[in-house]
Design a protein that fits this description.
By secondary structure, the protein is an alpha+beta fold. It has helices at residues 15-22, 45-49, 70-80, 106-122, 149-152, 157-173, and strands at 6-12, 28-36, 56-63, 88-89, 92-93, 99-103, 132-135, 139-141. The protein has one domain: Peptide methionine sulphoxide reductase MsrA (Peptide Methionine Sulfoxide Reductase, Chain A), CATH 3.30.1060. It has 6 helices and 8 strands.
């Protein structure tokens, strides 16, 4: 990571969806799928999917804050997943699919808390937001086959049904900020 890049770590269901959608944004240098928030060191995908490690599928985004602001990442993130359902996103159910923002510093913590408060005040969602806001302790990169999954497998049924609509939403709703 260069001095002009920052990182954000977000979890909102399957990491393939979040990774592919955020990679659409101008200023995003890299989006890496991985795992956060659990108690097993360097877990595997199979372990995380079992729900026994306490990890969430997450994406760590390296971005240029001169091009895309942290708030922009949050805006896209909260628009492409359902932050009001605990341990579930679409067809994926379990604590590994929870909604969470893992902040890297106090400024990010303050920003995400203010962002969520504003969403709640504006009544954007019918139900309360259940997104966890936690400090990032460790991010474990997922296995290579999970990186850029949608790019490699756009026509697999899961990708076509779940990832593509999120990518298309970013392209349409955030066209002025897309690559």
């Amino acid at each position: 990571m260069t001095d002009d890049h920052e990182r954000a770590t977000l979890a909102g269901g399957c990491f393939w969806c979040i990774e592919a959608a955020l990679e659409e944004l101008d200023g995003v240098h890299e989006a890496t799928s991985g795992y956060c928030g659990g108690h097993v060191e360097d877990p595997t995908y199979r372990q995380v999917c079992s729900g026994s490690t306490g990890h969430a599928e997450a994406v760590q985004v390296t971005y240029d804050p001169d091009i895309v602001a942290y708030e922009d990442l949050l805006e896209v993130f909260f628009s492409i997943h359902t932050p009001t359902t605990k341990d579930r996103e679409g067809p994926d159910v379990g604590s590994q699919y929870r909604s969470a923002v893992y902040y890297h510093d106090e400024a990010q913590r303050e920003t995400v808390e203010a962002f969520v408060d504003e969403l709640e005040r504006e009544g954007v969602y019918d139900d309360p937001i259940v997104t966890e806001v936690e400090p990032l302790e460790t991010f474990y990169e997922a296995e290579a086959k999970h990186q850029n999954y949608f790019e490699k497998h756009p026509n697999k049924p899961y990708c076509a049904a779940n990832v593509r609509p999120k990518v298309e939403k970013v392209r349409e709703q955030f066209a002025t900020r897309a690559n």
